[in-house]
Amino acid sequence: MMTYLRALKAVVWREMLRFLHQRERFISALVRPLVWLFIFAAGFRAALGISVQPPYDTYITYETYVLPGLAAMVLLFNGMQSSLSMVYDREMGSMRLLLTAPLPREFLLLAKLLAGAVVGLAQVAAFLCIAALTGLVVAPLGYLTVLPALLLSGLMLGAVGMLLSSTIRQLENFAGVMNFVIFPAFFLSSALYPLWKMREGSETLYQLARFNPFTHAVELIRFALYGQVEWGAAAWVAGATLVFLGLSFWAYNPARGLMPRKAGGGE
Q1: pLDDT tens-digit readout, 76-92
Q2: 135: left (phi > 0), else alpha (psi -120 to 50), else beta?
Q3: What's the pTM value of the predicted model, to 2 decimals?
Q4: How far is CA 111 from the centre of its chain?
Q5: Of 266, 209, 237, 28, nearest to 126 (Cα)?
Q6: How far apart are CA 15 and CA 82, in angstroms?
Q7: Does an H or E element contain 125, and which?
Q8: Distance CA 3, CA 218 (A)
Q9: How far is CA 240 from CA 45, 158, 159, in A?
Q10: Confidence grade of residue 217 (pLDDT, cut at 50, 70, 90)
C-alpha cells in the first residue's frame, strides 16, 4: 500500500509542479471564463432573463446563472490540457517510462487522471475567488459542498481527455481534435442558458444537450454550490466517468487498445 501511495504522491506532485511552472497555462485557464463573465455576460444580461428555477428560489442575474457553467468550463479546458500533456509526454518518452513502472497500468493512469483533477480544482478555486471579489458570492458552505462535485466532474472530463490522448498521434493534430470536443460540449449544455430556452428554439438541440455529459456536470456543480445534490446529474457524471475511464484503460493497453505496440519498444 505504501508503494501505491508513494507512486500516487509522485504523479500528483509532478503535475502540480508542472502547473506551477507553466504560468501561461494558469493565466489562460482564467482568461476564458473571466471574459465570458465580465464581457459576454454584460451583453447577454438584457437578452436572457433567467426565471425562478431550482436550485434558485428567486430571480437571479445572468452572471449568477453562468458561474457554475464557467467553473465547469475551467475543468473542461483543463481536461483537454491534460490530454495535451499526455501526448507531449508520449512523444518525449516520459509517458512510456511511467507506464512501464512495476505497478498496474490502470493504477498509473488513474493516478495521472487524479493529478489532473487536482490541478483543475486549483484553477476553479482561483476563478471562484476572483468572481467573489466582484460580488458573485455564494454561501460559505457552498464552497465546501461543491468540492466533491468539482472533483467528480474533473475526473470525468479528464477521462475524456485521456481517451482522446490515446487516439492523437501527433501534437499538430491536437488543436483540431480539442476544438471538435470542447465547443460542442460547452455550447450544447446548460452552461450559458437553461435547457428550456434551448428547447424553445430547437427540440433536436435540446435532446442532444440532455444526453451531453457536460450538461450534467454543470448541473451537478450548480446544485452543489447551493448545498444541494442533483442525484440524476451525479449518476450521469459518475456513469460517464466509469465509461470513459474504462475505454481509456482499454485504449492504453498495447495488446488490445488503440495504441498498438511499436517495433522497438514504444508504449
Answers
A1: 998 888 887 777 776 66
A2: left
A3: 0.87
A4: 16
A5: 28
A6: 9
A7: helix 105-133
A8: 36
A9: 32, 11, 9
A10: very high
174: CB partners within 8 A, 6+ apart: 83, 84, 87, 168
More confidently predicted of 42 and 151: 151
Instruction: Give the three-state DSSP class for 223.
Output: helix
Measured between alpha carbons, how far is residue 114 from residues 91, 126, 130, 204 in Å? 22, 19, 25, 35
Please name the amino acid found at residue 117.
Answer: A
Q: E strand or H helix at 244, and its extent?
A: helix 231-251
pLDDT for 21 equals: 77
What CA–CA distance (Å, rounded) separates 236 from 230? 10
Can you give the pLDDT at residue 220? 97
The terminus-to-terminus CA distance of the chain in angstroms comes to 26
Q: Return the number of other C-beta atoms located less than 10 Å from residue 258's C-beta.
A: 15
Ramachandran area for residue 73 (φ above 0: left; ψ -120 to 50: alpha; else beta): alpha
CB 115 within 8 A of CB 14: yes
Q: What is the mean pLDDT of the chain?
A: 83
Residue found under cell 499538430: 172
